[in-house]
Design goal:
The complex is a heterodimer. By secondary structure, chain A is mainly α. Chain A contains twelve helices and no strands. The chains are: A mainly alpha, B mainly alpha.
């Protein structure tokens, strides 16, 4: 138990360090970039004095190190500053958008795992049959789709050709608490993000299980007369799942990154669209805030993935 | 040669070759200019004059898809090459030397892996401007880490094998062991990684141009064509459908080709994945 605690402490310390690193790199990148927010804020032609005035008002005229320390100390207290554009607190902007993004990515991941693991098992066990071919084709197609195009084609099929499902938004206007409306709106974006995610999971479940099925302990299990299903699910799959969990963990940033495009296609009011808007408007505090929160979410999820190893394989301990 | 007998690999090779040819030959083989507009030819469905139809400005979709492949493939190859060199060297060093080198390199890789690539790419390209060079660099910046991880894992597994001990006992130096014994044996894994990365790079590039951060109009890129097609989805599906299909076929081609290569390289894995 103390092992786990010191492991957790170390990981959390590392996570904090990583957040500092990420924010520092981003901070420097943004300030090195040519042009600033004043061009966007003023719009059209402006004088050097007007630009200087705006930069002073936003605190951009101070030395870089001072700006970063000011930002970081506030951030450590949970204050991510205010949007250059709207003046709203960044924390509020993000809090409003985090829910829809977590819903989208969570549902997509769940869908991917629930479909991909059984499919991968089926493809491995029925190796060389039509199931296997179908599964392989499916997973290859999945990793090859540009998500934004897949989303648009789904809209074409299920919103335009056959008007079954709404093409955009979180719900009809003013009906955000209507569960049925929420679910109907969530189907196409979840499918888009999930289909792409499941390909990798399926591919790895299949190849990892095939590998496991070749091992001696599987032969032993078969030799002692265990039923086929028990050998596969209890002996082989359990060992095969470790690389699969790794792949799921590794794919989390891709999942969140994929949300940027999926949210843009489906006008989904999440973090991804907030980031896209902020980047085009050079809204530095929002860019910093979004990236910090996204990195924190991904780091936390990765930590949970690593902890999941112990559940799957008790031989793994944390030292 | 075994690759020739691998149906999937060959299908992939043909798909990739087809797209490459379309891009290389676009200046001479494209039936129309990518930018010539025609008000009378707006939104024509696919037909004899325009095989893939025309867009909202009356421009030929086939010609634009052909021109569009140039940007995607150039960035894809350049970014992958750069990222692969960096990732293989760092991953190999981490896996072989272990200890401090491993710690430092892998923690850096972790940091890069924990920031969703598209967010980072988005910030850099939006702020520094979308150019061939910027986009290539930033894609390499966000894709070296997975490559390094995969190569490291492979080297870590190989490091303890008997033939490596034998080589060391025979007096082989670090460079020889790493290059000749570890990385060469890791080659199938690196190649599969390269094929996936090519596809990835093209997907990232097209995603960027979908967000408006790729080639600027009227120069066509597959991503910006899909955006333009989006507004005509109900009336002219072909404008968005075909450039996206081109991305899909190209990426699928690279993935199939990589699988085929792996099977050809490593008989033990043939048909395994």
């Amino acid at each position: 138990m103390t092992d786990l605690r010191s492991y957790l402490l170390r990981r959390l310390g590392f996570a904090a360090l990583m957040l500092v690193g990420v924010s520092l790199i981003l901070f420097v990148i943004m300030r090195l970039a040519p042009g600033g927010p004043e061009a966007v804020l003023i719009g059209g032609e402006f004088s050097a004095e007007a630009a200087a005035q705006i930069r002073a008002r936003l605190g951009l005229d101070r030395p870089l190190a001072v700006q970063y320390v000011t930002w970081a100390t506030a951030a450590a207290r949970g204050d991510l500053g205010r949007s250059f554009k709207t003046g709203d607190p960044v924390v509020t902007l993000i809090a409003d958008r985090l829910g829809p993004t977590l819903q989208l990515t969570g549902a997509a991941l769940l869908f991917a795992i629930l479909v991909a693991v059984p499919l991968g098992v089926l493809a491995a066990v029925r190796r060389g049959t039509a199931w296997d071919t179908l599964g392989s084709a499916f997973s290859l197609f999945g990793v090859s789709f540009p998500s934004f195009w897949l989303g648009i084609m789904l809209i074409l099929l299920f919103s335009e050709a056959v008007p079954w499902l709404p093409p955009s938004g979180l719900a009809e206007y003013g009906r955000e608490s209507d569960l049925l409306s929420r679910v109907r709106h969530a189907i196409l974006p979840t499918l888009t993000l999930g289909l792409i995610q499941m390909a990798a999971v399926m591919r790895f479940t299949r190849s990892s299980l095939l590998e496991a099925l070749r091992q001696d302990y599987v032969r032993t299990a078969r030799a002692k007369g265990l039923a086929d299903g028990r050998v596969v699910w209890r002996h082989a799959l359990r060992n095969a799942l470790i690389p699969v969990v790794t792949v799921i963990g590794l794919s989390l940033p891709t999942l969140v990154g994929g949300a940027v495009l999926t949210e843009t296609v489906f006008a989904w009011p999440g973090i991804g669209r907030l980031a896209v808007g902020a980047v085009f408007e050079r809204d530095y505090p929002v860019i910093m805030g979004v990236n910090l929160v996204v990195a924190a979410v991904v780091i936390t999820a990765n930590l949970l993935t690593d902890l999941a190893y112990t559940v799957i394989d008790p031989r793994i301990s944390y030292q | 040669m075994r690759l020739l007998g691998n149906r999937r690999g060959m299908i992939g090779a043909v798909a990739v070759a087809l797209m490459l040819a379309a891009g290389v030959l676009a200046p001479v083989a494209a039936p129309y200019s990518y930018s010539s507009q025609s008000l009378t030819q707006r939104l024509r469905p696919p037909g004899r004059a325009h095989w893939l139809g025309t867009d909202g400005f009356g421009r030929d979709v086939l010609s634009r898809v052909m021109w569009g492949s140039r940007v995607s493939l150039q960035i894809g190859f350049a970014a992958t090459a750069l990222s692969l060199v960096v990732g293989t060297l760092l991953g190999g060093a981490a896996g072989y030397f272990g200890r401090g080198a491993d710690q430092a390199i892998m923690r850096a890789a972790d940091a890069f892996l924990s920031v969703p690539a598209l967010f980072l790419v988005l910030v850099v390209v939006a702020l520094f401007g979308a150019s061939l060079r910027n986009t290539t660099l930033v894609i390499a910046l966000v894709t070296w880490a997975p490559a390094a991880r995969v190569v490291r894992a492979e080297c870590l597994a190989l490091r303890g094998r008997d033939f490596v001990h034998a080589a060391r006992a025979l007096g082989a130096g670090h460079a020889r062991i790493l290059g000749r014994h570890l990385l060469l044996n890791a080659l199938p894994v690196i190649i599969v990684q390269a094929s996936l990365m090519l596809g990835q790079a093209i997907l990232i590039e097209s995603g960027l141009s979908y967000l408006g951060l790729g080639a600027q109009p009227p120069l066509p890129s597959w991503g910006n064509m899909v955006v333009e097609g989006r507004q005509f989805l109900a009336s002219a599906w072909w404008i968005a459908a075909f450039p996206g299909l081109a991305i899909f076929v190209t990426v699928l081609g690279f993935n199939l080709f990589g699988d085929g290569l792996r099977d050809a390289f490593d008989p033990a894995l043939r048909g395994a994945a």
